[in-house]
Amino acid sequence: MIKIAIAATAAFALAACSSAAPTPAASGSSAPASSSSAPALKVGMAYDVGGRGDQSFNDSAAAGLDKAKAEFGVDAKESAASNGEAESARAERLQQLIDAGYTNIVAVGFAYASAVGTVAKENPDVKFAIVDDSTNKADNVMNLTFAENEGSFLVGAAAALKTKTKHVGFVGGVETDLIKKFEAGFKAGVKAVDPSVKVDSKYLTQPPDFSGFGDVAKGKAAAEGMYQGGADIVYHAAGGSGGGVFTAAKAAKKLAIGVDSDQALTAAADVRSVIMTSMIKRVDVGVYTFIKAVKDGTFKGGTTVFDLKADGVGYATTGGMIDDIKDKLEAYKADIISGKIVVPAK
């Protein structure tokens, strides 16, 4: 571990990409003032496409980092991926954070899997956490995974209980096994309530093109097609592209379901009224868990799964639009936790 001293002040810059106006990726560091003589814990955060400000996945990760900053006086440096960048750029981003002295690294998103594998092997004394991937088995890598299918089941049930046209939709950012978990859970929840409800599905891009997580126009076009086809509720698992889904829902006077964060609180103010609920994925809990483990000296490699039982996933009630069906959703939640309902992941 590289020895450091706390700086009196540090510059803070971050990558930001919102549904309203994407901005270029940037990096920076921040550390709260501290009177302690102990060195601050230095954490490097490598966001996926969209970065902090995407109102969804990356922002959930950022919330965990912010909590650690407030509680532990963490000194953080942040950087974000760009649309269409080469795989080597992700590895370079991680190494740059390490070279700057940030030797506890959080890689946000499965697209960093290969980069983490390479850089972790080259830097065995550096501790890593990666969100949404479990392929790295190194002792210095903590894999943070989530039961997205379980949370998606609950919002799928909500959609089936609320649809007036018996027709709903799912928009995925990139067609990967991870995003298919969202789709599988959503469809299972719909069918558990009413097998006759039709579910449309569309993915915005195919790997290795990950721009589907940050293309508002594509998200809007996909949702428009579904609303025009008769769907009255559309669930997205598309990161920053979800902003386009919300815009389409507002124009069509229909409803949408957010993802990762409680998007009725985080999305652009003019579209929040159409967000019926959101599938909460507590990436913030995963990130905070990693940082706390490093601070406490309890860090160890391996995979941790944040499911319904661990409160790692769930659904939002902001806006009150699902208050009348909450008892039914809680019953489904209890059945999943008990094992009575096994939610498919494919």
The gist of it:
This protein has 346 residues and is of the alpha/beta class. It has helices spanning 57-72, 87-99, 113-122, 148-162, 177-193, 216-228, 242-252, 263-266, 283-296, 326-338, and strands at residues 28-30, 42-47, 75-80, 104-107, 127-131, 141-146, 167-174, 198-205, 233-237, 255-260, 275-281, 302-306, 313-315. It contains 10 helices and 13 strands.
Q: Can you walk through the features of this model?
A:
The protein has 346 residues and is an alpha/beta fold. It folds into two domains: 28-147 and 283-306, Rossmann fold (3-Layer(aba) Sandwich), CATH 3.40.50.2300; 148-280 and 314-338, 3-Layer(aba) Sandwich (Rossmann fold), CATH 3.40.50.2300. Helix content is 36%, strand content 21%. The strands form two sheets. The chain has a seven-stranded mixed β-sheet with strand order 1-3-2-4-5-6-12, with helices on both faces. Strands 8-7-9-10-11-13 form a six-stranded mixed β-sheet, with helices on both faces.
Entry keywords:
seven-stranded mixed β-sheet, six-stranded mixed β-sheet, Rossmann fold, 346 residues, 10 helices, 2 domains, alpha/beta
CATH superfamily of the largest domain: Response regulator
Number of helices: 10
Tell me the overall shape. globular
Share of helical residues: 25-40%
Please identify the structural class as seen in this structure: alpha/beta
Second rung of CATH, namely the architecture of the largest domain? 3-Layer(aba) Sandwich
Low-confidence stretches: 1-29, 31-36
- Cα radius of gyration in angstroms: 20 Å
- Total number of strands: 13
**Major sheet: order of its strands?**
1-3-2-4-5-6-12
